[in-house]
Design a protein that fits this description.
Layout lengths: L1 E2 L17 E5 L21 H11 L2 E5 L4 H7 L6 E4 L4 E4 L2 E4 L1 H5 L1 H13 L1 H6 L2 E4 L4 E4 L6 H18 L2 E6 L2 E6 L5 H12 L3 E6 L5 H14 L2 E8 L5 H6 L2 E4 H13 L1
Parallel strand pairs: 1-13, 2-3, 2-11, 3-4, 11-12, 12-13
Antiparallel strand pairs: 4-5, 5-6, 7-8, 8-10, 9-10
């Protein structure tokens, strides 16, 4: 793990030029600062223009997130960028939305789970924010007065409702996502971006537990295919220890990532 120095970010050890490098970047906590209201999360100032400059030079630039692909395209819209939403089960590229067939088939179960989450006693009593993600459901405790008190009751509710509807739970920092049990994670998305672009190097950046599969995929591509890989942890006071331990480089918040990417463009 290599920190950013006080004088500026450390340049990742990627020998390949930008034209041969794929960038796979998380959204919340990585490009966009974490905020109490998930609907209000917007890219850091200058981040969208930075994506535009990267997309003009890199082998590929992709936003890989648990967010719906349409949300990503709406708030970080840049020509040429791939938007891989719901961990890659939705994709927007060149303005076209593609949805995994199994994900679409599970939508009725997601709608039923959404209604049950909204009526769950623990969720209601906690004041949790319930996010309708279209083909997934998010339960957020970030803006609750005492999140630690409600974490286990809400987690138990999420697990029970997910199991009853044939869904799975993806936990994060003060959030639980109920999603179709369709085999896909950020690692699959990273592999897809690298394969489709023919990149010789990949840079992966994220800040939460859901980014661990992306880190693992980058390491696997390096070991098995000789792809140069750099894993960047975007740190905060809530950073999971496991993510930090597996990072090649750690930067402080979205500002740190922005500075690092700027250094590559220079």
């Amino acid at each position: 793990m290599r920190p950013v120095s006080p004088e500026g970010p450390v340049k990742p050890a990627i020998k390949a030029p930008l034209e041969q490098t794929a960038f796979c970047l998380d959204y919340d906590g990585t490009l966009a600062p974490i905020v109490p209201d998930p609907d209000a999360a917007r890219p850091l100032e200058g981040a969208v223009e930075l994506l535009r400059r990267l997309a003009a030079r890199a082998a590929a630039v992709a936003l890989v997130s648990g967010r719906p692909a349409e949300f990503l395209a709406e708030h970080a819209g840049v020509p040429g960028v791939h938007y891989l939403g719901l961990y890659g089960l939705e994709e927007i590229h060149d303005g076209q939305l593609a949805v995994d067939q199994a994900l679409a088939a599970a939508e009725p179960a997601v709608r039923k789970a959404l209604a049950e989450v909204r009526e769950d006693p623990a969720v209601r009593a906690s004041g949790a924010y319930v996010e309708d993600k279209g083909r997934a459901v998010g339960i957020h405790l970030r803006r609750v007065a005492d999140p630690e008190r409600w974490a286990e009751p809400v987690a138990a509710a999420a697990r029970g409702i997910a199991a009853a509807n044939g869904l799975e739970v993806q936990p994060g920092r003060l959030v639980w996502e109920l999603r179709p049990a369709v085999r896909s994670d950020k690692g699959d998305a990273v592999r897809k971006v690298v394969a489709s672009s023919g990149a010789a190097a990949v840079l992966v950046a994220g800040d939460d537990l859901g980014d661990l599969p992306a880190f693992a995929a980058a390491a696997d591509l390096a070991n098995r295919a000789g792809i140069e890989a750099v894993r960047i942890a975007v740190a905060s006071p809530e950073s999971p220890a496991e993510l930090l331990a597996r990072a090649d480089i750690t930067v402080e918040g979205p500002e740190g990532l922005r500075d690092l990417l700027e250094s590559l463009l220079r």
